[in-house]
Amino acid sequence: MHILMYGWTGKLLRIDLTRKKAVIQDIEPAILKDFIGGRGLAIKILWDELPVGVDPFSPHNKLVIAAGPLSGLPAPSSGKLVVASKSPLTNGYGDGNIGTWASVAIRKAGYDAIVIEGRSNKPVYLYIENDKVEFNDAKDLWGLDTFKTEDELIKTHGKDVGTLLIGPAGENLVRYATIISMKGRSGGRPGIGAVMGSKKLKAIVVRGTGEAKLADPKAFREASTKAYKEILEAENYDFWIRQGTMATIEWAQANSVLPTANFREGVYDNYMAISGTTMEKMKVERRGCPYCNMQCGNVILDSENEKSELDYENVAMLGSNILIGDLKKVAVLNKIADKLGVDTISMGSVIGFLMEASEKKLIKEKIEWGDFEAAKELIIDTAYRRGLGALAAEGTMRMSWYLGGGSSDWAMNIKGLEVSAYDCHAAPGMALAYGTSPIGAHHKDAWLIGLEVKMDRSAYNEKKVRKLIEWQRIRGGIFETLTMCRLPWIEVGLNLEHYPRMLSAAIGLDVTLDYLFTIADRVYALIRAFWIRENSEWSKVMDYPPMRWFKEPLTKGPFKGWKLDLEKYEKMLELYYKLRGWNTNGVPTKETLKKLNLDYTIPVLSKYVTL
């Protein structure tokens, strides 16, 4: 019997693509209270349900689409979903956070999560309307790019639906294919789009007509209104609206962290040509996610005279990282990647790796640094696994295994996930943030570099480690479980206390930041347990950043000659483990697991590692 809950719907929609069956199930209230939603609910489901060692492309892998109790409600930047699975890129836990109307629609349809299992024998797309699920033939959609697919689905089902879909990259199992929504919103860097493709699932279309039941609607409305107002009154709100994350190009250059020539350097001579200042003069439109009043999507016309939505990560990785100093051309590469459904960060890293491999004659193909046409062709070939693109589709870790020649030192990934756009030769704290990110080298869990540039850059100290854990609790814990965008807090300084206040009003429990931090620690420990279970030869080396940062010093810029110190990094990593209650190999101790109510992981982990 379903127990009436507030904030949460308490319901999960389970879809079996093999049998073409759907069933609505109750979620235990205790699970929701222990994991909240989003990433928390996703890792709990994957831990409980996946066979140990499952192949990510097997029908037995599962795709979890999880909202949180504040997702899709009229609150600042709440139009978010977590998409999660066992990653085909890293072989560990993989997830992504995507802004989409599907978040609103799934909640209105009455679900906290959708779990998709099995594999269709032919291309299908799902149409979900409240408690009704249709398995529709997708043969006419299969092969279409993400923009055309969305157009066709809206033509069929109307504008008031949410969509999640894949492009050719997902269909062809590119290991870093993403899920796309709203013609440019992308989520699932660790290949979640490829998992969708492996299931022959082209798209999910959702319409909902219900409303979430809140414990105290009046208190929620007041808390939300206050938060929206605080955002508008923030000191740097106007500048944020003008440049968004694109302001980071000039900041990264000034602080010598702008990825350049496959992370050889932290400064780029032609940085102004791809900067936020340059973008601002070209801007034709601004886009955002549902319920956002500080939209970050800056749109320009690219060199093909088409619209492309830019942010810092894709411009740095497809610009300075491969030495293309023309924003309109970078915008073309970004647009093509979005249309084909491939992650722009990993794609930029893969292109940089292959340009360097060409320079060092590890491949026969000639791909010069800054060659726009070659980069464009490579993105397309990757999505269709043609020629060199078949190798590129595997990601930098596997490419380095194949090519050898010392290339693993400059295959810029951690645990298989390509490093996002911050060079760490002179940023040991950010290197640790990448090393300990729960999905591989990604910045979303802890953008420590922003604080680190204000501290002693050369320090490998406890202050940085404690701040890293605090930010992981907030960014990777609170925001990824609620599930909401972190940018109002990060970029315009929205008071963090607004979030427990809104959550308390929604679910009817008195929630504190400490309660949310405990949940974050539980989620991080369970994700770590999943990694260890799925990678039986686990060692702390998996938390090391790329060797380039230790072996090859910067040759230019204000930190010329700097590189990371491996011995000092190891000490900082050991301190991180100690503060988290993990052992010297990065494994949560029995005491920590018991304290976090994760006792059920102990017998499993004991088979693989010493606890």
Task: Note the topology.
Elements: E1 11-16, E2 21-26, H1 29-35, H2 38-49, E3 63-66, E4 80-86, E5 93-99, H3 101-109, E6 113-117, E7 124-129, E8 132-137, H4 146-157, E9 162-165, H5 168-171, E10 179-181, E11 185-187, H6 192-198, E12 201-207, H7 217-232, H8 237-243, H9 248-254, H10 276-282, E13 283-287, E14 297-301, E15 307-310, H11 312-318, H12 327-340, H13 344-359, H14 372-384, H15 388-392, H16 396-403, E16 413-414, E17 417-418, H17 428-436, H18 449-452, H19 462-482, H20 487-492, H21 498-507, H22 513-534, H23 548-551, H24 566-580, H25 590-595, H26 602-605
Helix pairs in contact: 1-2, 2-19, 2-22, 7-21, 11-13, 12-14, 19-22, 19-24
The end-to-end distance, rounded to whole angstroms, is: 39 Å
Largest sheet: 6 strands, mixed
Which range best describes the helical content: under 10%, 10-25%, 25-40%, 40-55%, 55-70% or over 70%?
Answer: 40-55%
> The CATH topology of the largest domain, please?
Aldehyde Ferredoxin Oxidoreductase,  A, domain 1
Taking pLDDT < 50 over at least 5 consecutive residues as the criterion, the unreliable ranges are none
Inertia-based shape: globular
SS content category = alpha+beta
Question: Radius of gyration, Cα only, in angstroms?
Answer: 22 Å
Give the strand content. 5-15%
Question: What topology, given as strand order, has the largest sheet?
Answer: 2-1-6-3-4-5
Summarize the model shown.
The chain is of the alpha+beta class. Strands 2-1-6-3-4-5 form a 6-stranded mixed beta sheet. A 4-stranded mixed beta sheet has the order 8-7-12-9, sandwiched between helices.
